[in-house]
Amino acid sequence: MASVPTAFRVVDAIDDELLAGNRAARARVRRVVWAAGLNPVTEHGYVTLKAFQRLGYFPKLEDVPPGIVGHIRGCLGIGPTSPSAGEVGHQEPT
Q: Would you state the torsion angle of the CA atoms of residues 55, 57, 58, 64, taken in this order, to the nearest 10 degrees?
């Protein structure tokens, strides 16, 4: 973990240019997700986006270990927290 002074320097470095770059990067990711035929607002979309972030490609949901799916569900507050890989469904966050 960064020291408090380092954390404040990082936060102070956030400016309009950095935020614009972040928004542009997020828009590019959304275009890639939609082009891959995925819907980022479904549970499947969340899991595959996180997997893409770590792996650099979109795995099939059934290829993602159930523990990872459960962890992502738990972090987002969606679905059961101990899923099987075949359980796919969207629930609104609570």
A: -30
Question: Averaged over 63-80, what is the pLDDT?
Answer: 80
Token pair 């890639």 is at which residue? 32
Q: What are the domain boundaries of the chain?
A: 1-35, 39-94
CA distance 44 to 1: 31
Q: What is the mean pLDDT of residues 46-60?
A: 82
Residues 6+ apart with CB under 8 A from 76: 46, 93
Q: Taking a C-beta distance cutoff of 8 angstroms, is the pair 82, 70 a contact?
A: yes
- 29-33 average pLDDT score: 78
